[in-house]
Amino acid sequence: MKVMARLCRNVLNVKCLKYVVMTLTVWTTMMIGFYAKSWGITMMSLLEWEQIESQSALPNTKQKCIHPQLLINDSTMTRHLRTLSPEKCPDELEWVYVENGTVRFTKLAVSRFKGMSCSFIPLYRDGDYNVKWGRPILNIKNGFRIPTDFFRIYCSSVSRTFNGLFAGVAHTEERAERKDLPMDEGFGGLGIAILGFDSMSRMSWLRRLKKTREYFHGELGAIELEEHNVLGDGTTAVMFPMLTGKFEWELPDARRFFPNASTLDDFPFIWNDLKKYGYLTSWCNAENITAPFNWRMLGFKNQPTDFYSRPFFMVAKPYQVYVGRSRKLKMKKYCIGSRTYSQVWLNYFKDIFVSYPNKRKFLLHFLVDMSHDDNNLITMMDLDIRDVVKFLYDNNYLNNTLLILMGDHGARYDKARLTWAGKMEERIPYFSLLFPKWFQKKYPEAMANVRKNSKRLTTPFDLYETFRDFIHFTGTGDGDVSRRGISLFKEIPLERSCEQADIAAHWCACLASKKVNLKEDIYASTALSVAMDTINNLTSQYRDICENLSVFQVKDAIKMETRKDVLRFSNTDSVGGIYNITFKAKNQNLMSLYQLTFSTVPGMALYEVTVVHDILRNHFFLSEKEISRINKYGDTSSCILNKNRQLRQYCYCSKQTSSWGINLF
């Protein structure tokens, strides 16, 4: 250290100073790791390991898959909990508002601004990555019926001007006159409406959306899927199985920068089938750049659904009004006029019901900003979500609709994710269903199965099969455990396992765990080498811009076991760079699983991987889909974004544009 200090003493050498700071950071981290190890401290506390050991002794029951009993008051999770007050936006910003497809002038504007004149400028979609403004409609009057869902209103008076962006639901001939065709033995054309929130685990929902849950589950009797399990990493790993019944690698390639890739227009989305039976459809994601079907995929050439909010949120940012910041939480709160960003999203959902109360609907509305980076932000929405649900229920809009509230997965990057409970919560998202009372009375056997299944292993594949039953009901009875998707209206067998549900071992929350020492378990040490080789091989063709990574510190090493300590390995395949490992009982090769958590340099990336060990052949396998990056990487991978966006979590750019690219919390 003294030598480095002398080198920089008399010279204002920025490069040298950066090197010194980097060295100090790494040295400090190593010392912390050394003493933590000597004191018996690991990333997981002793209490957490006691929880893991208690879960290893699974109860004597026929049910194969039993999730760990996570605690709502787990101190390793609640220490990160903050409840934030709802944001209020100043009403005086608005000259007009939209109600049931109609523009209304505010009383404040009419009384204050003499000679007020307003123009309506429609917003149109121009593909998935551009918008265009239509010809202005001049001098609109109070009560003007909007011809498009998204628009700008410009007003002027003698002394002031107003320019606002709005979302509403237009009454169009095409929507209103769509015929409701007879359903083929379905459930009488029951609608489906989904409000989804990014990165919301079951336990995080219980901690942060108490008023919503108290009303939806406690008062209205919504059914929660307590054993719901993710199928993979991120939002698309939920959306594709739920909406198409397929994994991403089973669908046509739609990834950016891949040869022969195409848009998602030909994907077999369930909304296309429902639209044929008169359903009004929506995909409304309140995100522009990182939207699930647009960030690393090519999006849609044609508008996929009747209601599609992407054009609005592509232009919304410049119209947001900064109203405050909490430095402690490093959060920004924005308003669009008199409403928050999230209220605009919620009200668009509500307005579809108000504008088309008697039409069959399949609505999927998904919100990212209020929970993806920080689950605490969603506490500001608790009352808003509850109030929208209450409005729809009290006004009988849900009398012909199944309402679903859901998360796609748990938090993937925050500090709580580094704990054992956080790891489990990522794999167990919130999912809750509210059926109309008449439906529950008319179909008692189907509803009895839904209630039984609320405590059985379920996945997004099961939701897809449930949605299919709305078109063609396949009956109740026992579900076929050999099928990876089972409708919730059938009883899911107790003996269903993650393998049968097509859940990769890395994502299965039913596996018992045992801590291992890499120095004592040679197979665990080999698994770590395989993991590093796999990660580096993924970026090998981009070595001119992506660094070769090496292990800095092993945080955790766990050997995972199924209920009977058996996993059967069938095959490894590769489809366009997406790797898939499947397990089938017919193959008698005994497997062990090692789940490793480790950091790498340069860049301090933190990975969690599940390596399969074929004991008889002594082969090790690691699928790309069983690698999780569990800390943020910011712009440290920016060099790969326009070459192969799929590899952003593995690439640490040789040339960094930020402060040395260290992504520590």
Automatic annotation (TrEMBL):
Pfam families registered for this protein in UniProt: DUF229
GO-annotated cellular components: extracellular space
Transmembrane segments: 16-36
InterPro entries according to UniProt: Alkaline_phosphatase_core_sf, DUF229
Keywords noted in UniProt: Membrane, Transmembrane, Transmembrane helix
Protein name per the record: Uncharacterized protein LOC106050684
